[in-house]
Structures are given as structure tokens and as C-alpha cells.
Amino acid sequence: MTRPPRIEGATPSPNIWHHPATYELENRAADPHGRIEAAMASVAPWDGLRFADIGCGSGFHLPRWAASATSVIGVEPHPDLARLAQRRTRRLGNVTVSVGTAQALPVPDASVDVAHARWAYFFGPGCEPGLVELDRVMARGGTAFVIDNDGSRSTFGSWFRRGYPMVDPSAVETFWSLRGWTRIPVDMGWAFSSRADLEAVVRIEFTPELAEEIIASHEGTDVDYAVNVWWRDY
Length: 234
Description:
The chain is α/β, with parallel strands linked by helices. The chain has 9 helices and 9 strands. The protein has helices spanning 20-29, 35-43, 62-66, 79-88, 128-137, 155-163, 169-178, 195-205, 208-217, and strands at residues 50-54, 71-76, 95-99, 112-118, 138-149, 182-187, 190-191, 222-223, 226-233. The strands form 2 sheets. Strands 3-2-1-4-5-9-6 form a 7-stranded mixed β-sheet, sandwiched between helices. Helix 1 crosses helix 8 and helix 8 (195-205) packs antiparallel against helix 9. The longest helix is centred in the last third of the chain and has 11 residues, at 195-205. It is globular and about 50 Å long.
């Protein structure tokens, strides 16, 4: 899964686009206690509402949203991943998956009650076209969520700062705050079923040199991992 998407305007993901099977391990290990979902539900439960998952990847989270939402649309720029998401949800009558980008969502105006973008808006600055598109598609009274890494704290946050020094946590927080978004800090964690799984995921998230340093210095199968759940009402 290394070929480019057949649509313009997508920023390639460094992990799932090239390693979907390993990223599945990461999805299974992330947030074992459901703290991200709990934070979202504390602001805007999606029971009986129209839900959009922007950058849904292979559709890992779509069945969970579909369990209580009236309708769910997953939007994914990589056609192969979109096909995996379609296959995963083929028996769910209230789910559709479309190929598209955050700045050109394939949905009508004011048709989304709850939007979710997890590691799809690339840490604030640069995602402005996607935020403009949210202004179009969000229904009155709707709520959008953006989940991003918190590089200011946690073990994973320290790894992230080393791997992505161009991402300034303070600048990211300022970006969202100035645009009217509210932050919920969440300690979600990674909990892998095996050491081999943890090592495989670390190797798709960081350069080979840094990955080996991390693996050599970190013991066990769990990692404390902080994220920010950003939200805004429309």
C-alpha cells in the first residue's frame, strides 16, 4: 500500500498508508480504557445523530460509532484503505465509506452532527482548509472533535518531540485555542499484547535510528501516552 492516492490534496500518512497491518496492532493497543471516547461523550454524545469520521483509515473505529449513531460516514483519502474500511463495515447498514479529503468532504452542507478526526489534521497549523470545510458540513448545534498527540508530556510525548521536532506543542495549543476550540487532556496509554507488537509499531512511527533507541531504552509492553481532545460547537 505504497502507491499515491488517486485524488489531490491528501498529505501522506507516514504509518498506516505503508503499514496497515501493523497500524491495526497500534489501534488495538491504543486507549485500552476508552478514555478518548469517554471525553468525547462527555461533551457531545452521538446517540441517534449523524456522525462523520474524517480520515477513517481502514475503518477501525467505524463500528463503534455505528453502534449508536443514526448514520456514519467514513472519509479516507487513500483508496486502498477506504476499500478496507468498506469491507470492515459491509454488514453495517448505517455506515458508508467514501474516498475524499478533509478540505473537500463528500457530504452535503449542514449534514453532520458529530465529526471526529483522529491524527488526521496533522497537529494544527496547515489544516486550515479542513476547518473551513467543517464550517460548511457541520449542522447547527453540532460538535467537531480533533484528537492529536500532546507532545508536552508523557513517555510517548517525549518520543514524539524527538521524532518530530518541527511540531511545537505550544504553537499547536495556541493554534486551536485562537480558533475557538477547547482542550481536554487525556492520558490514554498504549497496552500491547506482546513485546513484538510494541516494537513493530514503534518502528513504523519513528525513523529507524530513533526507533531502535526507544526500543532499547523502554521495557515492557505498556507506554504512558497523552493526547489532546480538541472540540468545538457549531
